[in-house]
Amino acid sequence: MIEVNKAGEVWVFAEQHSGRLEDTPIELLSKGRELADQLGVKLAAILLGNGIDDMPDRLGHYGADKVYVAEHPLLEHYQANSYTKVIYDLIHKHKPQVVLFGATPCGRDLAPRIASAAKAGLTADCTDLQIGRHEIKKTGQVYDNLLFQIRPAFGGNIIATIINYDRWPQMATVREGVMPMPEANGTRKAVIVKETAHISSEDLPLEIIGQHIEEKKVNLKGARIIVAGGAGVGSKDNFKTLWDLAHCLGASLGATRAAVDLGFVDHDHQIGQTGTTVRPSLYIAAGISGAVQHISGMSDSQKIIAINNDPNAPIFKIANYRILGDLKEVLPKMISAIKEKV
Q: If we measure between CA atoms, which residue out of 341, 330, 152 comes closest to residue 248?
């Protein structure tokens, strides 16, 4: 168990693959900066790899005060055993009070292994993080400046706040897209701390002969306009009308989990608690009832247009513009009107 260090830093795992820094750690640096400033401590990024070029400087531009860099040929490709050992060694050496990971496939694989090694708690898939005060009513013991790890629970029906006051570091994985992407400050510099990775080939039970990374078909996080459909669209054929509307607007196509599960569109288009979190300028929701699991992933859209034939659909409660009607009639009229003005 790592000892509790109230003056410990806030750390963000800077996930990178093949020399490319992922978006999620950059998003986490925005929240990490806020947490570190509240706690009055430094914000640091942990960067592992081999031949990492200018990535430490970029992390400084996005808010990191320090970047702990561990370079080794055996760290060129992610493997859970080697990354766990190196990061645990760094945690044991520097004793941070908060360690954050993106809830990516890599982060979800790595974070619980490190938490187990450190005998610390871990909250998965957080949608918010705050600093707060907690009192144990039975003993009257008060803990200040704890990390409140906030996430949906019970299928999104409640919001749970989880704390870890006695086994540190406080660790969490954070869903992609829920934190805003910070703006880079090219004049801001981080202190680069070179660390030695104490690993050997024995720490890698697998040999990676080659790797193939399939790029996502759609970049929902970067889309300014999204046209999204739910189970109410009715069929894969009916989804073609949404594709047509998206094409007219230069928009990306999104979907609810229900639409994905029904096979109307593939998983890359899924928005919501188990998909991508988005913040477009315009979000058009067609045939979407508005389950909390979906709303949690798109409610920060600047403008929401909802199309539904149910006047009591929950999506109408958050929509800026509400169209009550059959989407099979509404969507073709929208497409026709847009084409006439182009």
A: 341
